[in-house]
Design a protein that fits this description.
The protein is mainly alpha-helical and 263 residues long. It contains 6 helices and 5 strands. The strands form 2 sheets. The protein has a 3-stranded antiparallel β-sheet with strand order 3-2-4. A two-stranded antiparallel sheet has the order 1-5.
Length: 263
């Protein structure tokens, strides 16, 4: 996998990086927001790739003479070959649309210029994310450019819908994401969120209980108990009151002996 750095490095920085291993991000086991973003992108790429593959169909072979025209190529109502329906928009210039033709296997990463195709016509599905996915402008503005049948069945009339039947299979009959169809995506994500939420609650409760236990243990060893301290204060108060009464009694006794008896 090749990475391109937009900012030019100095000679010293290049020498420090030469021959060194590269690690992007930290390796953590926590399934946070990036995990769900990755799951969403994975489903989106698989779904859009299958959808476009049905719409476009096998490419025509113009390398031979006469060219071999694929009978399964998708054709719109105008009799023109169908291009990609789901596309990826350039992350730098959103007006540039990438026709999604390459598969996700052995595909190149986007780096300003695709290494396998300078025209940006046949781009990798790794370009596509939930943020930049879109519909081709031509198809979005004119529904007649959406293919519902193939070249072979084009003469069957405007109601020919053999491609629509194949697209409907993406809903549940075609495995797209974790062994399920398109309708299983939200179920899988919801299950992940539910399980992760329950685990978080359990871990939080356990750690809270452990924290309280450790705190009580530390208090019993090095700290004081508030109830015990209050009881001791009451004892000291009572002892002080008794001592004060004793002193008052002895003072009264001395007063009587000295003043009344003349000792």
């Amino acid at each position: 996998m090749t990475f391109y750095i937009n900012q030019t490095l100095t000679v010293a920085e290049q020498n420090n990086l030469y021959g060194q291993a590269l690690q992007v991000g930290d390796d953590v086991d926590y399934m946070g927001i990036p995990y769900y973003q990755n799951q969403m992108n994975l489903f989106l790429r698989n779904f859009c790739e299958r959808f476009n593959h049905i719409e476009i169909g096998p490419e025509d072979d113009y390398t031979v003479d006469p060219p071999i025209l694929s009978p399964d190529r998708g054709y719109d109502l105008n009799g023109d070959p169908m291009n990609a329906f789901f596309i990826s928009r350039d992350k730098i210039d959103l007006t540039v649309e990438h026709q999604m033709r390459e598969g996700t296997i052995n595909a190149t990463m986007y780096s300003g210029k695709d290494s396998s195709d300078d025209t940006k016509k046949y781009e990798s599905y790794y370009l596509m994310t939930a943020k930049n996915v879109g519909i081709a402008t031509a198809t979005d503005k004119d529904s007649s450019k959406f293919a519902t049948t193939t070249r072979e069945n084009y003469n069957s009339g405007v109601d020919a819908a053999d491609l629509v039947v194949k697209l409907q299979a993406l809903q549940s009959k075609t495995k797209l994401f974790r062994g399920g169809g398109g309708n299983a995506f939200l179920q899988c994500i919801y299950s992940d969120v539910t399980v992760d939420t329950q685990e978080c609650k359990i871990f939080q409760t356990n750690f809270t209980n452990i924290e309280k236990t450790i705190g009580n243990q530390r208090t019993s060893i090095s700290g004081v108990d508030e109830d015990e301290e209050a009881l001791d204060l009451m004892k000291f108060q009572n002892a002080y009151n008794l001592a004060s009464k004793c002193i008052s009694t002895f003072a009264e006794i001395y007063d009587r002996l000295i003043l009344n008896t003349g000792v």
